[in-house]
C-alpha cells in the first residue's frame, strides 16, 4: 500500500463536474494498492494517518493530529502510485493490484477510516476519472508505505 498524504486547508473531488467529496482542514489521501496488501496493512495505515502529528500548535510546531484540529480526510484511489517509469516512456502498472482486488481493499480502507473518524471521511469514487482540487497547507506532503 502506498499513500501520498497532503495536509490541506480545503479540498474537493469532482466527477463529471459534480462534487462527490469535500473537506476543509485535514488530509487528502491518495492511495494505491499492490498485490498482497492486507487488512493488517490497512489498519496500520489508518492508525498512522489518524495519529500523525503534522498540524501546527500555537508555537507553530507540527504537534497536533487530526482529532486535535477537528480535521477530516478525503480519500482518493490512485493506482498510478504504483506506476513504474524505470524503463521506456510509458509507465508500467504491473505492481498495482488488479482492479477487483484494489476495489475491495479500497472499500475496506474507507470503512476503517469511517470507523476511526466517524463523520469526517469523504471519498472519491473508485475507478472514476476525477478532478481533485486542494489547497496544500504548508505545503506538507508525505509519502507513506506499508
Identify the notable features of this structure and list them briefly.
single chain; 146 residues; D-tyrosyl-trna(Tyr) Deacylase, Chain: A; six-stranded mixed β-sheet; two-stranded antiparallel sheet; 21% helix
Summarize the model shown.
This protein has 146 residues and is α/β, with parallel strands linked by helices.
SSE map:
Elements: E1 2-15, E2 18-23, E3 26-32, H1 39-51, E4 55-56, E5 62-64, E6 72-77, H2 99-116, E7 121-123, E8 131-145
Parallel strand pairs: 3-6, 6-7
Antiparallel strand pairs: 1-2, 1-3, 1-8, 4-5
Helix pairs in contact: 1-2
Largest sheet: 6 strands, mixed
Q: Return residue spans where pLDDT drops below 50 for at least 5 consecutive residues.
A: none
Count of β-strands: 8
Mean pLDDT: 97
Strand percentage lies at: 35-45%
So, CATH architecture?
3-Layer(bba) Sandwich
Q: How many angstroms does the end-to-end distance come to?
A: 5 Å
**What count of structural domains?**
1
User: In terms of structural class, how would the helical and strand content be classed?
Assistant: alpha/beta
CATH topology: D-tyrosyl-trna(Tyr) Deacylase, Chain: A
The string of secondary-structure elements, in order, is EEEHEEEHEE
Walkthrough of the structure:
With 146 residues, this protein is α/β, with parallel strands linked by helices. The protein is 21% helix and 38% strand. It has one domain: D-tyrosyl-tRNA(Tyr) deacylase (D-tyrosyl-trna(Tyr) Deacylase, Chain: A, 3-Layer(bba) Sandwich). The protein contains two helices and eight strands; from the N terminus they run βββαβββαββ. Strands 1, 2, 3, 6, 7 and 8 form a six-stranded mixed sheet that branches. A two-stranded antiparallel sheet has the order 4-5. Strand 4 (55-56) and strand 5 (62-64) form a beta hairpin. Helix 1 (39-51) packs across helix 2. The chain is globular. The mean pLDDT is 97.
Amino acid at each position: 500500500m502506498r499513500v501520498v498524504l497532503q495536509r490541506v486547508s480545503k479540498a474537493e473531488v469532482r466527477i463529471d463536474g459534480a462534487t462527490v467529496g469535500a473537506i476543509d482542514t485535514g488530509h487528502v489521501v491518495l492511495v494505491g494498492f499492490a498485490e498482497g496488501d492486507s487488512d493488517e496493512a490497512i489498519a496500520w495505515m489508518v492508525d498512522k494517518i489518524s495519529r500523525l502529528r503534522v498540524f501546527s500548535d500555537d508555537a507553530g510546531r507540527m504537534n497536533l493530529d487530526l482529532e486535535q484540529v477537528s480535521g477530516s480526510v478525503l480519500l482518493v484511489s490512485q493506482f498510478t502510485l504504483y506506476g513504474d517509469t524505470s524503463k521506456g516512456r510509458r509507465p508500467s502498472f504491473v505492481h498495482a493490484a488488479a482492479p477487483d482486488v484494489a476495489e475491495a481493499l479500497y472499500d475496506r480502507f474507507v470503512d476503517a477510516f469511517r470507523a476511526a473518524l466517524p463523520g469526517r471521511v469523504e471519498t472519491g469514487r473508485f475507478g472514476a476519472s476525477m478532478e481533485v482540487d486542494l489547497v496544500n497547507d504548508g505545503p506538507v506532503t508525505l509519502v507513506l508505505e506499508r
